Amino acid sequence: MAVNLPPHYHDAEARYQKGKTAEEKLAALREMWVLLPKHKASEKVQAILKTKISELTDQIEQEKSGPKKAAPGTFKIPRQGAGTVVFLGPPNAGKSLLISKLTKAAPTVAPYPFTTREPVPGMMDVRDVRVQLVDLPPITADAYEHFITDLTRSADAAVLFLDLADDDGPANTEATIERLKQARRQLVPEKTSDDDPTTYQLKTILAMTKCDDEAADIRLEIAKEAFGSRFPTVVISAERGDGLAELREAIFAALGVIRVYTKQPGKPADKTAPFTCPIGSTVAEFAGCVHNDFEEKLKSARVWGGAQFDGQTVGRDHILMDGDVVELHV
Ligand SMILES: Nc1nc2c(ncn2[C@@H]2O[C@H](COP(=O)(O)OP(=O)(O)OP(=O)(O)O)[C@@H](O)[C@H]2O)c(=O)[nH]1
Ligand SMILES: [Mg+2]
Q1: Top-confidence residue, 131 or 330
Q2: Which ligand does the CA of 113 lie closest to?
Q3: In this predicted model, which residue has the larger pLDDT, 64 or 328?
Q4: Which domains does the chain carry?
Q5: How far is it, in rounded angstroms, from Cα 119 to Cα 132?
Q6: pTM of the predicted protein model
Q7: Any idea what DSSP says for residue 282?
């Protein structure tokens, strides 16, 4: 779909290209953001602008706050799988033990705070797909590693932790939320379209951990009162395994993707390794997920799935459902 851009947009874009400092570039990008028509056809451009504005805002702020401890990109984690989900929470809440139960990652787990110092990725299997989980250092009012700002920008969702073995669990989790707000990261149950390109909303699931603790039941009541209506919540014990299957499903659901299987003409579908694409994707958009060129080149497609589709030929705008099998003709 073509985006009709007003002429002033191109002037601002030229200023962005010519800008020498981060501040000049940011000012031009903000103008472009204001001038950009916000509708479905411009969604891709909106996303690109938002990311650039957020990156530059973060860069300028980090430069102002003094020399960096780590060079930019030191802890860049290449995205893998159907989506990336970061673990955010106070110290000692059980983030590292949990990732070791859900993936093959083996970060150090210890009965004292501030054990994890660097991001640790691991791949979690759920519903035939793999999701990248990233264990992160703890976040408190005073402790915040700046690379978390970058890593949360490239994440699709977050798991926020609340420790049911600690009377201060709710207050500590609140401190994590507040510290992230300062870094312009807003933890939300569902993303909303907001007009502030400098703030990044992260779709969040709350994991109330260590439910095996002997006083966990009382704390759970209090924690649910404070947080139950703010985030979708899963009560877990990484130690005993309670709630882990539910959490896997909640993480998959948070990604907002469907699984689509491909097949070659005359052959059965490969039911082991589905592609994933955003809920609501059309056949043409799905073709673009399979290969960059395919969205343009797609001539027709056949779909098997649900009760209605048994190999019917469908148009480019046909919306796919989770579990559909598609034969692309390009
Ligand atoms: N009883 C119980 N203990 C747990 C559970 N999960 C974690 N722990 C214990 O809590 C302590 C902290 O666990 P970690 O996984 O290291 O916590 P963390 O959130 O990664 O801590 P930082 O890296 O400091 O942020 C360890 O002693 C774990 O064994 C659980 O579900 N039940
Ligand atoms: Mg840890």
Answers
A1: 131
A2: 1
A3: 328
A4: 7-64 (no CATH), 84-255 (3.40.50.300), 257-329 (3.10.20.30)
A5: 12
A6: 0.88
A7: B
Tell how far the Cα of 83 is from the centroid of ligand 2, in angstroms: 21
Radius of gyration, alpha carbons of the chain: 22
Summarize pLDDT for 230-243 with one digit per residue, the tens: 999 999 999 999 99
- Ligand 1: which of 86, 87, 88, 96 to mutate, most ligand atoms within 8 Å of CB? 96
Would you place residue 44 in the very low, low, confident or very high pLDDT band (cuts 50, 70, 90)? Answer: confident
Residue nearest to atom 16 of ligand 1 (CA): 109
Whole-number pLDDT of residue 302: 93
Kindly report the CA angle at 261 between 257 and 266, in degrees rounded to 5?
Answer: 160
Task: Give the Cα-Cα-Cα angle 115, 116, 117 (nearest 5 degrees).
Answer: 115
Q: Which atom of ligand 1 is nearest to the CA of 93?
A: 19
What would the two tokens of residue 146 be? 């700046």
Please name the residue ranges forming H helices in 144-274. Answer: 147-153, 169-182, 216-227, 244-255
Q: Residue type at 81?
A: G
For the chain, give the mean pLDDT.
91
Question: How far is the centre of ligand 2, averaged over its atoms, from the C-alpha of 136 (Å)?
Answer: 7
Ligand 1 site-directed mutation target among 87, 88, 97, most atoms within 8 Å of CB? 97
How remote is the CA of residue 210 from the centroid of ligand 1, in Å?
8
One-letter amino acid identity for 276?
A: T
Closest CA to 121 of 140, 96, 144, 139: 96
**What average pLDDT does range 278-297 have in this prediction?**
90
Examine the pLDDT at 68 and tell me if it is beyond 90. no
Rounded to whole angstroms, the Cα distance separating 30 from 175 reads 30
Q: Which amino acid is at 187?
A: L
